[in-house]
Amino acid sequence: MPHVSVxxxxxxxxxxxxxxxxxxxxxxxxxxxxxxxxxHGLPAPQNRSAADELEAAVRxxxxxxxxxxxxxxxxxxxxxxxxxxxxxxxxxxxxxARDLGAAVGLRRDGATTVAATAxxxxxxxxxxxxxxxxGGVHRGARESxxxxxxxxxxxxxxxxxxCSGVKSILDVPATLEVxxxxxxxxxxxxxxxxxxxxxxxxxxxxxxxxDTPADAAAVWRAHRRSARRRAPCSHSRCPPTQSSTAxxxxxxxxxxSR
Length: 258
Fold this sequence. Notes:
Blueprint: E1 4-7, E2 13-16, H1 18-26, E3 30-33, H2 36-41, H3 46-60, E4 64-71, E5 74-77, H4 81-88, E6 93-95, H5 100-105, E7 110-112, H6 114-124, E8 128-130, H7 141-144, H8 149-156, E9 160-163, H9 172-181, E10 186-189, E11 193-196, E12 199-205, E13 208-210, H10 213-226, E14 233-235, H11 246-256
Helix pairs in contact: 6-8
């Protein structure tokens, strides 16, 4: 399928699929999806099946999916089936927002993280981005300074991010503190609990709650008028049948860190 070229800068092209470009221009709903999950988070062939399932879920709710990646040194918003095959085949670099210029300039292939996906989605005019668990402050960050660029990306990019909290292996309280410091609003969708990715409750509350899509949209519209350079996070918990317990995730994290 041919693409429509929209410049990110005079030298760095951004290719937006015709379906995504037409939907953005017409004001129809579009949801951005990251590609790091596919290239680095899941093994083959499950990753390719997941790519189709994610896009199908977006379409089932009346929106157009826009999976984001960099291929042949070109940032792309909205991928063809063949391009999804390439993403899922392996060998792609992992690109945060800081890596986009290098990947484009050196004509490399790369899968985009939360920060990079949000940046490219915003440039393409896509206002909503859905993902799983965000990155955040790692345990022991007081010594290592290991803090995900996802948090800085949320603070700098006005895109609504819908997710299942942050990964439970992280320092959740410290991550919430950074989000507060960066003035990133955190809203629970039909929940008072801040999720921990596979955990429905990380043990920490959310400061705000929205119980309907209309309420969530109202928060987003009001936020855009008052604080344009911050990305609100709407957190939705995973289904109970797919959730993990605190004991299980803590035990797995402890064993993995040894």
